[in-house]
Design brief:
CATH architecture of the largest domain: 3-Layer(aba) Sandwich
Number of strands: 17
Shape: globular
CATH class of the largest domain: Alpha Beta
Order of helices and strands: EEHEEEEHEEHEEEHEHEEEEEH
CATH superfamily of the largest domain: CoaB-like
Radius of gyration: 20 Å
CATH topology of the largest domain: Rossmann fold
Largest sheet: 9 strands, mixed
Amino acid sequence: MMDARACHLPGSGWTAGSSHHPSWVAQTLSMALTGGGCNRPAPHRLPWAPSSLTDQTPANLPDGASSDPPAPATDRLQEAPNRGSVRILVTSGPTWEPIDAVRYLGNRSSGRIGVEIARAAAELGHPVTLLKGPGTVDPTPHPQIRTVRFQSARDLERELHARWPEHDLLFMAAAVADFTPRGASDRPEKLRRETGPMTLDLDPVPDLLAGLARVPHPGTRIGFALEPSAELEDRARSKMTRKELQGIVANPLETMESDEIEGRLLLPDGTSREPPGGRISKRLFADWLGETTLSIHRSTHEAGSD
């Protein structure tokens, strides 16, 4: 077997493990490459995770629809199998707020950054629960990732409150709707244009991440702010304070639907961290964010235990 430090990405000029590149890039390349002498060790399989992706949505429900309330936490997630493992919860994609039986209010979120964060954390050896919104990209099957689907903001709120207590670190990358149509449950059938003009009344959706701040939990919560560049930092820091977060990813609105991101991690002490290279792929950003946030989480909790 060839040493992973000698793995080379053809046509890129990059060699995994080279001293000329950051360790997080080298690790990403060495773990992503297959063949050509580059091998990665078989991942540790969790007791609750099958060899393929777990999808808890029953086959007879619409994509993303929720079924019964979540089972008690002790029935779903066991202790992290490796000493030092961090149990990670990631949300990804949009919410669909129903108008009638077939229509909904949604947004253009692809869910890509959340899926990449889940992948990056799993490849670092941590057990991951991915709460995945409707109409989004699917993660590559990984034995460390368990996927649970949601559809509406109400579905996601229920999943978060049921699952957050059993995790240590949350990446709230889902694009949750700000409003939901009033009285959708009273319109179980498809609305017809023949009925003439109609008006939709919209109710505000509760702030799900701020709601978690009221749950007694010593874990680390990371939010995301998608705002125009000119207002990005001010709005992101305001959100971080209001939601009582341990960090927030400031993401320019201009990169929405792109395969690249120019984000940075803002911290409550007024500092920020950003990956080298400026605008990079969402895959590499997720690798950097995973390592950076895990380091912050560990240092915070080690200091608190002294």
